[in-house]
Write a structure and sequence with these properties.
seven-stranded mixed β-sheet; globular
Length: about 170
Amino acid sequence: MLYLAHGLSQLHFGSLMTVYGESNRENSRDFWPEEPEMRQIQLAEEDFYRYLEQVFFRTPGAVYALWEENGRYVSALRLEPYRDGLLLEALETAPEQRRRGYAAALIQAVQCTLAGKTKLYSHVDKRNLPSLKVHEACGFSRIADYAVYVDGSVNQKMYTLCWDDKPSV
């Protein structure tokens, strides 16, 4: 079931970290290689919390979308204003919940809430074939062979995808 959080107090942060655990472990090795693994994960989670508190949820229109199954978060993504629509970012499904359709269900539920209202953009790593397939199955099209992030930086290792269900004028 889709759950939308418009503020940090509406999230169960510990449950959210179970969804992002794998990514946090991978990223923490790059950011804090000298720290023991448990400390790396702690630092990654602290940074994640600070980002949500100080940046993401202070952005007007930002929302966290989560897919819950049996009362547990199994998949998550962030939405924030971007160009003439919203940027879908940080799509993640807990590793033990993958290949069950939760990411697609989450994206499709978000699309249903936005139908006819706005475009959705997403930046996906060119090597992430599972994510590219999910986006394609959800109606996204590739519009650029690079990503331009909210801060203006460019990443050549990403594709920019777009879903547009707005009526043509």
